[in-house]
Amino acid sequence: SSSEVYTASTTAPVNIAVIKYWGKRDPKLNLPTNSSLSVTLAQSDLRTHTTASCSPSYPPQDSLLLNGSEQDVSGPRTQACFRELRALRKQLEDANPELPKLSSLPLKIVSENNFPTAAGLASSAAGFAALVRAIANLYELPSSPTDLSRIARQGSGSACRSLFGGYVGWEQGSAADGSDSVAFQVAPASHWPQMRALILVVSAAKKGVSSTTGMQTTVATSSLFPARANETVPRRMKEMISAIENRDFEAFGKLTMMDSNSFHATCLDTYPPIFYLNDVSRAAIKVVEAINKKAGRIVAAYTFDAGPNAVVYYLEEREKEVAGLFKAVLGEKDGWQGERGERVQRDAEGL
Ligand code: PMV
């Protein structure tokens, strides 16, 4: 009937890269200059919950509500996701005339993050992954996670990795249309279930330079960038996949820290320079170095995205040394406890 509402819900978790995506060879399709690799956090940790619905009774414009506030859906990223998903639904409807014609109905998307959206915690990754999967479920598309990663990538590059759990790669691909630029699972979370991620919210402020602008300027101006994209990252991708396969934390940790440093070095080498790390970020690096020095080996590894917040990876058996020391340094903790680690939320004064 004309008032019928069709609906589907899903959740998608945040992922935190250990080999960073930084650089676009095609900004429209979000095709990267290098492959990347991340760990998807547990569903109980940071995640976006999204409900997609459509109805002939809705106002004619598509809409997206995030944490209760209306978002602009007219941008090319969101439009690309809507367009691709509608085209797939249309194919199904053309092949099965008895199916309701959902592809021509306005969409209403309602999303909630269970973490501060402004905190620069890869919220766009979970957001676009959840949006794409919710609409695919609504449309009852037979798409695989790989197919959905190809669509979510056009929303936000890093979002393609949140379609898989555990340890996830994003193959840069070489096709001009992006057909081979998709995410793949390196190993499920159960392969190395002891992995933990501690998230230090150094600043809840929105990032100063957006990842898109930052990437474009780095690619255009950094003299360190070609070596990173063409030599360093391809080598480390292979080493990282082996480290994960062998559950070798020392190798995993060292590669994670060195790749974060390499990424932020190309940011500093950008002109004008981009500074994502601040004094508190550098203090967090010092704490990790002190922990590793005391242990006599790498038991904790920091990484930073396009902002000052630290993510520290460690194994459960090192909980006391790692989370314990951070808590001691930070004082009374204020955060969440999740399956995949304990996240400590503090203000900049904390360290
Ligand atoms: O997906 P975007 O455009 O928000 O870019 C994410 C870039 C980094 O978070 C810095 C690295 C990564 O691989 O997630």
Keywords:
351 residues; 16 strands; Alpha-Beta Plaits; MVD-like_N; alpha+beta; 2 domains; Ribosomal Protein S5, domain 2; binds (3R)-3-hydroxy-3-methyl-5-(phosphonooxy)pentanoic acid; disordered C terminus; 8 helices; 5-stranded mixed beta sheet; 36% helix
Task: Explain what you see.
The protein is of the alpha+beta class. The protein has two domains: 6-191, 2-Layer Sandwich (Ribosomal Protein S5, domain 2), CATH 3.30.230.10; 195-350, Alpha-Beta Plaits, CATH 3.30.70.890. The protein is built from eight helices and 16 strands. The protein has helices at residues 76-95, 123-138, 145-155, 211-221, 225-245, 249-268, 279-295, 319-330, and strands spanning 6-13, 15-19, 24-26, 31-32, 36-40, 47-54, 63-66, 69-71, 107-113, 167-170, 183-187, 195-201, 300-304, 310-315, 335-338, 341-345. The strands form four sheets. A five-stranded mixed β-sheet has the order 1-6-9-7-8, covered by helices on one side. Strands 13-14-12-16-15 form a five-stranded mixed β-sheet. It has a four-stranded antiparallel β-sheet with strand order 2-5-10-11. A hairpin with a 2-residue loop joins strand 7 and strand 8. Helix 5 (225-245) packs antiparallel against helix 6 and helix 7 (279-295) runs antiparallel to helix 8 (319-330). The longest helix is centred in the last third of the chain and has 21 residues, at 225-245. The radius of gyration is 20 Å and the shape is globular. The relative contact order is 0.15. The model is unreliable at 347-351 (pLDDT under 50). Bound molecules: (3R)-3-hydroxy-3-methyl-5-(phosphonooxy)pentanoic acid.
